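Dear colleagues,

As part of the handover before I leave the project, I'm documenting each prediction I ran so the next person doesn't have to rerun anything. This entry is a single chain, and its sequence is reproduced below.
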Amino acid sequence: MSMQWFSSATSTAVTIIADPYAPLFFALGISFVLLSSVLNVRNLVKDAVKDFSPVMKYFASVFALLFLLPLAIILLQSGHTGVSPVSVGLGPGKWRLGLILTAACLPLSLVGLMLGINDPILKTYYPFSKEAMSSAGRFAIYESAYLVLYYLPWEFTFRGVILFSLLALLPHTAPALVMVVMVSTFLSTIFHIGHPNSEVLGAFILGVIAGTLTALTGSFLYALFHHALVGILNDFIAYRRSMRTHALGRETA
């Protein structure tokens, strides 16, 4: 009886390991744990005298764990499975529909931005690096890294790998589409726990919009545009506010 159980368990384990999505989601699970603990941005800046380098380390960690690692696994498997960068949304997809929906959703993103910039808690939370606002050059470097090292991996994983992998495993029906969008939204929203409450709510709303946009177009790039637009504009407004404060300080000195 015990040998039969062992044989069955071994067979099941081999089947799971052989599945193209198993190593991918296992790696993402480890990545989530690391980015939620030792590599969390709050932990990295907690005891730092200056915050620019720790935040850039956080961005680099996000890029390595949520983009390079899953992309490497996908590329290694692409020769003998149906998983590829394009199959997880890394491409233009239905670009005409994407452009139309991106333009249609733009007012929603701008409304979300306006609601966020009036939140006093959110004002103190972003940008992650306050040191980045010390000069225009440093701010430009920071925001470029924010786009490439943070927003790209974020959308690649949550709206790309997770969403399209689940879609591939389920029948292409409306209920399945809703479930997949909500699962990816739940995961990306949970990752915001500890952020200001208004941002957690905004992450859920944006997640539903971005997930639907991605599922309909076959690409996460349109969701990336909206996500990065709101975040970078929010930082830019904070930067302009900081520059005005410093200018007024010099005038009254």
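Residues 12-16 have pLDDT under 50 and may be disordered. The chain has ten helices and no strands.

All the best with the project,
I.
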